[in-house]
Design a protein that fits this description.
Structural class: alpha/beta
Strand order of the largest sheet: 1-11-8-7-5-6
Number of strands: 11
Number of helices: 10
Distance between the termini: 47 Å
Order of helices and strands: EHEHEHEHHHEHEHEEEEHEH
Strand content: 15-25%
Helix content: 40-55%
Radius of gyration: 19 Å
Shape: globular
């Protein structure tokens, strides 16, 4: 069994991105820039934003942080995002979700132009991904693909099963795998014979948000198992996979924590850098 170490791999990628950001600064005379908008007092969101800003600083990316109160109006939020869209020193815009009740996230996110949508959530980017065209791709599924690539795992021709169909992970994950020539099945809460579907997978991606949901009897011998979940049980953080048992059957497996999570942040930085590099001088 080989552990797919996202923490180590992400550190390598961040070092590479630092080099790209430094070259951009020398060439253009100003740094790669990411704007982060946090509205309200959600404690988890505050932690996520702090981590993203810290990662930007380490990678040589300038962060523009906007902390807005819970009482922020729809109009003010949309106007801020629109102004960032016009700012040439901002190459990526990230609006931290969830937003406070009363704000229409869809309308606010729609103000982010596709070329600055470094989360890859816009209809334009998702549509381009579905068509196999160049797109900014959601950070978590992109991180999964990069982790597999760096461990020399080819997905072409393999049967891949994605458990979960969210717009943030499940759907773009399935499209990336399909574009890489895997045969893809997407499973969800209404799937019949879920255990059987999972047992047929050469590559099993768990993104369902239920602690230790994927058990050893759901996994084929020597399968590649990627755990996107981040849950908490009586022992602390855990994924969607029962790691202790499943690792005995898997050929490759990601740990939680230290697997997909660090790769997500690394791909966010990658997306910002790519967005900057695509801009005209």
């Amino acid at each position: 069994m080989t552990l797919l170490n996202g923490k180590e791999t992400a550190a390598q990628i961040r070092a590479e991105i630092k080099g790209r950001a430094d070259r951009f600064l020398v060439k253009r005379g100003y740094p790669v820039g990411l704007a982060v908008v946090l509205i309200g007092e959600n404690p988890a969101s505050q932690v996520y934003v702090r981590n993203k800003i810290k990662a930007c600083e380490e990678a040589g990316i300038r962060s523009f942080a906007y902390y807005l109160p819970q009482s922020t109006s729809q109009k003010d939020a949309e106007e801020l995002v629109s102004s960032l869209a016009e700012n040439k020193q901002v190459h990526g815009i990230l609006v931290q979700l969830p937003l406070p009740n009363g704000l229409d996230a869809e309308k606010i996110l729609a103000k982010i132009p596709a070329e600055k949508d470094i989360d890859g959530f816009s209809e334009n980017n998702i549509g381009s991904l579905a068509l196999g065209k160049k797109a900014i791709v959601a950070c978590t599924p992109l991180g999964v693909m990069e982790l597999l690539k760096r461990y020399g795992v080819s997905v072409a021709g393999k049967r891949a099963v994605v458990v979960g169909r969210s717009n943030i992970v499940g759907k773009p994950m399935a499209m990336l795998l399909l574009n890489a020539d895997a045969t893809v099945t997407v499973c969800h809460s209404k799937t019949q014979n879920l255990k059987e579907e999972c047992r047929n997978a050469d590559i099993l991606i768990a993104a369902i948000g239920k602690a230790k949901f994927i058990t050893a009897d759901m996994v084929k011998e020597n399968a590649i198992v990627v755990d996107v979940g981040m849950n908490r049980d009586e022992n602390g953080l855990c994924g969607d996979v029962d790691f202790a048992e499943v690792q005995k059957k898997a050929s490759y497996i990601t740990p939680v924590p230290g697997g997909v999570g660090p790769m997500t942040i690394a791909m966010l930085l990658n997306n910002v850098c790519e967005a900057a590099e695509r801009t005209e001088e």
